[in-house]
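Translate structure to sequence.
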Protein backbone atom coordinates (compact mmCIF):
# COMPACT_ATOMS: atom_id res chain seq x y z
CA UNK A 1 0.00 0.00 0.00
CA UNK A 2 3.06 2.23 0.13
CA UNK A 3 2.72 3.21 -3.53
CA UNK A 4 -1.00 3.95 -3.25
CA UNK A 5 -2.43 7.42 -2.65
CA UNK A 6 -6.21 7.99 -2.84
CA UNK A 7 -7.44 10.15 -5.72
CA UNK A 8 -9.76 12.03 -3.33
CA UNK A 9 -6.77 12.97 -1.18
CA UNK A 10 -4.84 14.18 -4.22
CA UNK A 11 -7.77 16.37 -5.22
CA UNK A 12 -8.10 17.80 -1.71
CA UNK A 13 -4.38 18.56 -1.48
CA UNK A 14 -4.54 20.33 -4.84
CA UNK A 15 -7.52 22.43 -3.67
CA UNK A 16 -5.78 23.28 -0.40
CA UNK A 17 -2.70 24.29 -2.40
CA UNK A 18 -4.83 26.66 -4.45
CA UNK A 19 -6.28 28.17 -1.26
CA UNK A 20 -2.77 28.74 0.09
CA UNK A 21 -1.64 30.34 -3.16
CA UNK A 22 -4.74 32.55 -3.32
CA UNK A 23 -4.22 33.70 0.27
CA UNK A 24 -0.51 34.32 -0.31
CA UNK A 25 -1.22 36.44 -3.39
CA UNK A 26 -3.96 38.33 -1.53
CA UNK A 27 -1.34 39.12 1.14
CA UNK A 28 1.07 40.23 -1.62
CA UNK A 29 3.69 37.74 -0.48
CA UNK A 30 6.20 35.80 -2.51
CA UNK A 31 6.60 32.09 -1.89
CA UNK A 32 9.96 32.74 -0.26
CA UNK A 33 8.34 35.29 2.09
CA UNK A 34 5.67 32.80 3.16
CA UNK A 35 8.32 30.13 3.69
CA UNK A 36 10.42 32.47 5.82
CA UNK A 37 7.44 33.66 7.87
CA UNK A 38 6.23 30.08 8.44
CA UNK A 39 9.73 28.85 9.27
CA UNK A 40 9.75 26.29 6.47
CA UNK A 41 11.64 25.87 3.23
CA UNK A 42 10.73 27.36 -0.14
CA UNK A 43 10.52 23.80 -1.46
CA UNK A 44 7.83 23.01 1.14
CA UNK A 45 5.70 26.00 0.12
CA UNK A 46 6.06 25.07 -3.54
CA UNK A 47 5.02 21.48 -2.84
CA UNK A 48 2.00 22.55 -0.81
CA UNK A 49 0.83 25.03 -3.45
CA UNK A 50 1.25 22.33 -6.11
CA UNK A 51 -0.80 19.87 -4.05
CA UNK A 52 2.10 17.45 -3.56
CA UNK A 53 2.31 15.44 -0.36
CA UNK A 54 5.77 13.95 -0.87
CA UNK A 55 8.38 15.27 1.49
CA UNK A 56 6.11 17.69 3.38
CA UNK A 57 5.82 17.05 7.09
CA UNK A 58 2.49 17.52 8.82
CA UNK A 59 4.09 20.18 11.02
CA UNK A 60 5.27 22.22 8.03
CA UNK A 61 1.93 21.74 6.28
CA UNK A 62 0.06 23.12 9.30
CA UNK A 63 2.51 26.01 9.74
CA UNK A 64 2.06 27.10 6.12
CA UNK A 65 -1.75 26.87 6.35
CA UNK A 66 -1.74 28.86 9.59
CA UNK A 67 0.67 31.49 8.28
CA UNK A 68 -1.35 31.91 5.08
CA UNK A 69 -4.50 32.26 7.19
CA UNK A 70 -6.40 29.34 5.69
CA UNK A 71 -6.20 26.74 8.47
CA UNK A 72 -9.60 27.68 9.92
CA UNK A 73 -11.20 27.44 6.49
CA UNK A 74 -9.59 24.09 5.68
CA UNK A 75 -10.51 22.53 9.03
CA UNK A 76 -13.85 24.27 9.59
CA UNK A 77 -15.83 21.01 9.52
CA UNK A 78 -13.67 19.60 12.33
CA UNK A 79 -14.22 22.69 14.45
CA UNK A 80 -18.00 22.47 14.07
CA UNK A 81 -18.30 18.69 14.60
CA UNK A 82 -19.40 17.85 18.17
CA UNK A 83 -17.50 14.55 17.97
CA UNK A 84 -14.27 16.56 18.03
CA UNK A 85 -15.01 18.47 21.21
CA UNK A 86 -12.36 18.17 23.90
CA UNK A 87 -14.43 15.93 26.19
CA UNK A 88 -15.20 13.50 23.37
CA UNK A 89 -11.57 13.30 22.30
CA UNK A 90 -10.25 12.84 25.84
CA UNK A 91 -12.18 9.58 26.13
CA UNK A 92 -9.87 8.15 23.45
CA UNK A 93 -6.60 9.68 24.61
CA UNK A 94 -5.64 6.70 26.78
CA UNK A 95 -6.94 3.93 24.50
CA UNK A 96 -4.49 1.71 22.64
CA UNK A 97 -4.60 -0.87 19.92
CA UNK A 98 -2.99 -4.25 20.51
CA UNK A 99 -1.44 -5.71 17.38
CA UNK A 100 -1.28 -9.42 16.78
CA UNK A 101 2.09 -11.00 17.48
CA UNK A 102 4.18 -11.91 14.47
CA UNK A 103 5.01 -15.58 14.48
CA UNK A 104 7.84 -17.26 12.62
CA UNK A 105 5.37 -19.44 10.70
CA UNK A 106 3.71 -16.29 9.29
CA UNK A 107 6.71 -15.84 6.99
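Result:
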Amino acid sequence: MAGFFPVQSTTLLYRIGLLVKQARLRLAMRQVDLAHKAGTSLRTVRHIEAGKAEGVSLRDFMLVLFTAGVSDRVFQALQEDPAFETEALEAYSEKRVRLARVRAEDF
